[in-house]
């Protein structure tokens, strides 16, 4: 019996059609420093601008969007998940002050549906274009038997550059620095296993309309991750450190950029409705919420006091609500979270109560 690749479940023709559908969107992210076009074995970037750096350091990050893809698949909406991917990857390198140079993506699926793959990549490309970052390469892999026909996962990687003496981080943080919180656009791309479990246990379908949200729960959960790239780069010369609030919540991530011997005391804030809905529906303990979800804050900036109001104003002009959320001080040895995710850092203490929970 003759068995073809197509009979094994892989349709190379569908892959080619997907490339044709996404080609235009990807090309729009390419500036004059991109050599060649879409479809090569490797993307090429003219890196001559690095010659102007005294000591350029390359920054790199890789990530996915977790089980948020399950909601996109359930609702058959695939053009927003790409921005989530860009936000998760690129804004991790921006934290150190690095300007993104390029991004690549990887999509694994059970069956290549050209229109679906093109929607995903168009979303990635649109987000890349909005932050002037070329989508320089990608791969779509068909994995029949490993993934269902309507299942897929996405991942990406980015590379950026920063001058060695301009790297942001714990070494710059000082007592008296102000902690500026930048609002998230929603749950972003972390904690969806908890969220999906809460909905499952309570029998909520993603199409359920929630009056408190003014939309369906599924549409709310698919709101894309806010991109902080442009505003963070614009403010880099006024900032000592950034913290991207992703998996693990605010305190655990902020502790990673706190120097040993220092403590950030952060006041709890007004929590957006989606977090209250999940908390109430699942009777989720506050400790679990704090350790899992961003609760309305997607990025933090630690800045000298004299720059605090200016940073808030720049964020507001960029359409990102921001506020003074706390202050850095010498560690008093009291109760606090100290160090996280393998980093032996300083401490973070959350004070007060959340409005809205």
What does this structure look like?
The structure is a single chain. The protein has 357 residues and is an alpha+beta fold. It folds into two domains: 153 residues, 2-Layer Sandwich (60s Ribosomal Protein L30, Chain: A), CATH 3.30.1330; 182 residues, PurM-like C-terminal domain (Phosphoribosyl-aminoimidazole Synthetase, Chain A, domain 2, Alpha-Beta Complex), CATH 3.90.650.10. The protein is built from eleven helices and 15 strands. A seven-stranded mixed sheet has the order 10-12-7-13-11-15-14. A four-stranded mixed sheet has the order 3-6-4-5, covered by helices on one side. Strand 1 and strand 2 form a beta hairpin. Helix 1 runs parallel beside helix 4 and helix 3 runs parallel beside helix 4. The chain starts with 11 loop residues before the first helix and ends in a 6-residue tail after the last strand. It catalyses: 2-formamido-N(1)-(5-O-phospho-beta-D-ribosyl)acetamidine + ATP = 5-amino-1-(5-phospho-beta-D-ribosyl)imidazole + ADP + phosphate + H(+). Pathway: Purine metabolism; IMP biosynthesis via de novo pathway; 5-amino-1-(5-phospho-D-ribosyl)imidazole from N(2)-formyl-N(1)-(5-phospho-D-ribosyl)glycinamide: step 2/2. Belongs to the AIR synthase family. Its EC number is 6.3.3.1. It is found in: Cytoplasm.
